[in-house]
TrEMBL record:
Ranges for domain HDOD: 303-498
Keyword field contains Chaperone: no
Name this protein carries in UniProt: C-di-GMP-related signal transduction protein, contains EAL and HDOD domains
Keyword terms, alphabetized: Coiled coil
Organism: Polynucleobacter meluiroseus
Coiled coil: 157-187
Length: 536
């Protein structure tokens, strides 16, 4: 018999813990490409949704109330309690009961720095909208080398007018003080508006600004334009676009010793360019770059996706979808220079991870695998074989690739009730969604060659079914259509959240960048506090 008994120790009493704090969702929504005259992507306008920080706060406040309600009911199960309203994107309101419409700088920085938006840009620029009241020291959190900052002209003029009104009131007050009035009159030149001083101060340390909302020439415009590197023009709202562009390009920019391209004139970007006709007009009157999705429309000058070589691509894709033998596949790929060229590049990128270097098409096929070759054959329908442009800088290819990866990733959020047998179908829909823009044939007729499931064809042609709704959501996110995204997420695609849209968009872009670039973009945040490098 043991002389001593082990004494049992009671577990320490712990107070009930509430739910963990909810962190803000990713405010990133989508991006629109900006393309130069050589039809190469130079950057994207980035879209963000407002209220993500406030939503997290409201959710945490609600959770705190729910904890208190639980404690009260534990003490008195018959107690009367009032449950707080659910917090959703649709009913989110600020403290004044108004809808949240403006994105904060902290939300944008959170998305850029911690959610992978910067890395998703690869070698390209990210154009970001800010307001006049955000031109402060906190902007030093933005790497100047990566992010041109867009400000609307109305914001600038409004700030100047507000400052002038305050100055006028001060001058009226001086009328009663003769000595102070004399000092005011002897102070020299009229004071430069504060917002112009802020723009100059930030410009001098490396920031590049983009002026939007300009429609005509007016007195004082010269003083504003010298603070900017880019001007965005919506040509639908400009009555004399050629004269305005000529005027803007006649404004000498301040000398910048660190300029890489040696450009001494304002760069003119045409915005809202959605058709080939709008592109041709903007190009012919002297615009340097073009923002919009005009390149998805069939146009003899913009699109080189016609002819026998692309018909061979369609034939190869048909073969791939029938699961061919390796020997048959190699023969077919070798007969397609479009696929051969890019497959070797893709396989070489893969080989750096697998430590295998492809020597020929057979090696490339073994390294990449049939599934990947099938996907890239599908996507290479949108590549420009005659232009010496990197895969990640080709607008149409980039758009379709990211769309396909996005739909594949998002389809996994639909659950068992989503009606999808495989996420591969979602990828297929995204990848073939613009096929009718490549050939002078209706999409349904073109797709009939591939023996595809009817749900795939109907989704592409009619936007019907779950796959069609996913495609509509992808298109809405691409143009930053927040309302349509909200509608689709709350109606047809209820298991998908706006945060899912943000995260899967970035994952899709990351997949695309990883498969088309040999090395990731350098970390631009190290020098964010002392921006002094020139943008490309």
């Amino acid at each position: 018999m043991a002389l001593f008994k082990k004494k049992s120790v009671a577990a320490p009493i712990q107070a009930p813990r509430g739910p963990e704090k909810i962190v803000p969702e990713n405010p990133y929504l989508g991006r629109e490409p900006i393309i130069n005259r050589e039809q190469t992507i130079i950057g994207y306008e980035l879209f963000f949704r407002p209220g993500t920080t406030l939503k997290a706060k409201r959710l945490n406040d609600r959770n705190d109330v729910m904890v208190q309600i639980a404690k009260r009911l534990a003490e008195d199960p018959k107690a009367e309690v009032n449950y707080p309203e659910e917090v959703t994107d649709a009913n989110l309101r600020d403290d004044d009961g108004k809808e949240v419409t403006q994105v904060t700088l902290s939300e944008i920085l959170y998305s850029l720095k911690t959610k992978g938006v910067t890395q998703s840009l690869g070698q390209h620029l990210g154009f970001i909208n800010i307001r006049a009241d955000q031109l402060g020291d906190e902007l030093r959190g933005f790497p100047a080398i990566k992010f041109p900052l867009q400000i609307d002209l109305a914001e600038i003029l409004g700030a100047i007018e507000a400052e002038a009104a305050i100055a006028k009131e001060a001058e009226q007050d001086l009328e009663t003080n003769a000595e102070a009035k004399k000092d005011f009159e002897d102070s020299g030149e009229p004071r430069v508006p504060e917002i112009i001083e802020k723009l100059e101060r930030l410009r001098s340390v490396g920031y590049k600004f983009v002026l939007t909302g300009l429609t005509e020439v007016f007195d004082g415009l010269d003083d504003i334009l010298t603070k900017f590197r880019y001007v965005k023009l919506d040509l639908q709202k400009v009555t004399k676009p050629f004269s305005l562009i000529d005027y803007c390009k006649g404004i000498p920019l301040p000398r910048d010793e660190k300029s890489k391209d040696g450009s001494k004139t304002l760069q003119i970007i045409a915005s809202n360019v959605h058709t080939p006709e709008e592109y041709h007009h903007a190009r012919d009157i002297g615009c340097d770059a073009f923002e919009g999705f005009y390149f998805v429309k069939s146009d003899p000058e913009l699109s080189l996706h016609r002819g026998d070589e692309y018909r061979k691509l369609l034939e190869l894709l048909t073969l791939l979808l029938s699961s061919p033998e390796l020997k048959e596949l190699v023969t077919a790929v070798e007969a397609n220079p479009v696929v051969s060229k890019h497959l070797m590049v893709i396989a070489e990128i893969d080989s750096r991870r697998k430590r295998e270097k492809p020597e020929n098409i057979r090696d490339a096929a073994v390294i990449s695998g049939i599934k990947r070759i099938t996907r890239w054959t599908q996507l290479l329908l949108y590549a420009d074989t005659k232009a010496k442009v990197a895969l990640d800088a080709t607008p149409l290819l980039q758009l379709v690739c990211v769309r396909a990866f996005f739909m594949e990733s998002l389809s996994t959020k639909l659950g068992a009730g989503g009606g999808l047998g495989s996420s591969d179908l979602a990828f297929l829909v995204g990848g073939l969604s613009l096929i009718d823009n490549l050939f002078d044939e209706p999409a349904r007729e073109l797709l009939s060659h591939f023996n595809l499931p009817s749900v795939v064809v109907d989704a592409i042609v009619d936007r019907s079914g779950i796959l069609g709704q996913l495609l509509s959501l992808a298109e809405a996110a691409e143009v930053g259509d927040l309302e349509k995204c909200r509608h689709l997420c709350s109606d047809e695609l209820k298991t998908v959240s706006l945060d899912d849209v943000a995260q899967d968009s970035l994952l899709a872009i990351k997949n695309f960048v990883a498969q088309t670039q040999f090395a990731p973009e350098e970390d631009v945040w190290d020098a964010a506090d002392s921006p002094n490098e020139e943008l490309a």
